[in-house]
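Field: COMPLEX_INPUT
Field: COMPONENT_COUNT = two
Field: RESIDUE_TOTAL = 764
Field: MODE = joint
Values follow.
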Amino acid sequence: MNNFEHQSLPPPRSEIGLLGWLRKNLFSSLSNTILTVVAIGFLLWLLPPLFEWAILDSIWMADSRKECWAKMEVPEGAACWAFIKDRLGLFVYGFYPMDQRWRVDLSFILLICAIFCVLYEKLPGRKFGLMFAIAFPFITGWLLIGGLGLELIETDKFGGIMLTLIIGVTGISFSLPIGIILALGRRSNMPVLKSLCVMFIEFIRGVPLIALLFIASTMLNFFLPPGTQFDLLMRVLIMVTLFSAAYIAEVVRGGLQGIPTGQYEAADALGLTYFKAHWLIILPQALKISIPGIVNTFIGLYKDTTLVIIIGLLDPLGIGRASLSDAVWAGLAKEVYLFVAIFFFICCFAMSRYSLWLEKRLSTEN
Amino acid sequence: MDIVNKSQNKERSVVSRLWNNKDARSVIIQILTIALVFAALSIILHNITVNLAAIGKDFSFDFLGHTAGYDITFSPFLDYTSSSTHFEAAIVGLLNTLLIAFCGIILATIIGFIFGIMRLSNNWLINKIAYCFVEFTRNVPILLHILFIHGIVIQLPVPRQAVNFIDSFFLTNRGLFIPKPEWGPNSWIVGLCFIISIAIVIILRTWNKKRQEQTGVIYPIFWISISIIVLFTLGSFFLTGMPLTWSVPELRGFNFRGGVSVRPEFVALWLALSYYTASFIAEIVRSGILAISKGQNEAAGALGLTKSRTLQLIIIPQAMRIIIPPLASQYLNLTKNSSLAIAIGYMDLVATIGGISLMQTGKEMETMIIVLLTYLVISLIISAFMNWYNRATALVER
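Field: COMPLEX_OUTPUT
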């Protein structure tokens, strides 16, 4: 027996560090090298001009498009962010009266608090936080519309990012409970309830949201008692909520199907009623499985809020398009679209990252 | 015990006894639900009649036979003029919806699979480029994509300075101009030969599969099929004396003549819908392929299958089972999203019957019913196909 221990040699230089990483990930074979070269060429073609256009050569201080273009070396050769800066108030608050904008600001702060209460689980006194989160849509509704001591603001003054958040948050907070009820109805043993839920879900899922919004804007008044005036924003909110509730219902149904029958039987054996069994045993597990799907539906809803511009409400995209027809700034479409795209990207990407994180955290617990 | 129970039962009212009986309770709830639904429906119907009578409207579909009186700029299948009826306008709209859905589905699938495979690439750069594209595209609303692409398309050069590909494809602000095939007298023979060659290929593949299951011998069936189809079709094409000419678009005055012209709205909507849906398809493809466990790959390797055979015989058939259902629902989404055509003036179903016809006739109720029912039928057909496919490919479990 040879007791002499070989000292393990360090890995070859070409396998570790930056060089090894490059070899492994970019130049591992001939075809891979070709792909890398093509990709680098593509990025060189795309990124530097984009960077120059958007940042290096861009103009931040100007009072009109002409002034903007006059400041550039090549007219129209760079972004004119002065436009967005000039219209930022409109993009955020819509046509909300200038002296009342503190109400919107306060709502934004409350929204952040509510989101924090819902998402941050270690918060002391979280029970009150959750109660606040449930009350939040109603508090904000009062704060924004007014009444009871506050000046009344017509909802057709709402617009911009504020409108997106109103539709998004209302849709998200009301579609989840409605969706869960629909999903439970679809799995119910009672044929009448079941077929009603199936009909509702399949109908909503089968038609485009834009058709439903048209119904909200043109037809819904026929359904109501004569003389009822029903706010357009309210009608839109109802339609958006019902629309995403149908999708949530399908996601939750998937989650319910993933619960083994043993769980139902165990709940029955303990003598729990239907409501207690679902509230304590079934739903917590089913919702946990369906988190990714639910968040995806929420992201879809949030993006779909832009469709309201087709029936005449002005969300950021609508405000942007309206600003484009302003003679002082006309012709700056790229800036508007990029600005709105970045706004939506930040919101939606954050939501999807959070859902990924939550999924990972919940799965390690098991 | 019995005595106590009985006395308690007597004390309970009939209602509470019924309520505590599971079957009776379910019947009661259902009867109540039906009553509620009927009450709601009758109130709504009553409101509708009262409201319609108040503004002097009636409920009828007669307007479908009336002259529409508006132009539709894009009607590739039917001859539509402003003297056509509202019904014809609706049909044109439906055909336009189906056309954009069909073209969009094909392009979205191609782009989606390319990006899905790029996301699985070992090459770090390719992987990240695909990741950025997918994440940016799918986190931005589709309407924004459509408006953005439309903005680019209408800023393309005028026909005189058209973007020119090999002197036959022209991209201008009036749309895309492509050559149009014009078939000669004997061209049906070529078509027939093409169909026959496909039939031969199908027979050959069935035979090959049976043989493979019995003996394990595999022929390079893919290349054989391709060459059969190409040889047959090309052979008959040359034998019949090349009965095909191309009508190439030519610049006359301010616009192009000849060839097929594709409206800019169509191009914009098609591209935007395709790459937006493709970003979702890419994720579906990626997760479908990743869902096949590593063991499958290793088992195939242990059996001595080559890498391409593993992909063809082991990975793809199993991945498709996971990919197809969400893929079908993406196709459905694309079809429904095509209704956003109205934002850029492409005349689809919602824009014709649900848009201009609605405005002209004031028949909100009737036109919206037509639109909703049409979309419902389309989605029911797609989901019926999906269910059939699911059943056909489901794992047979013992």
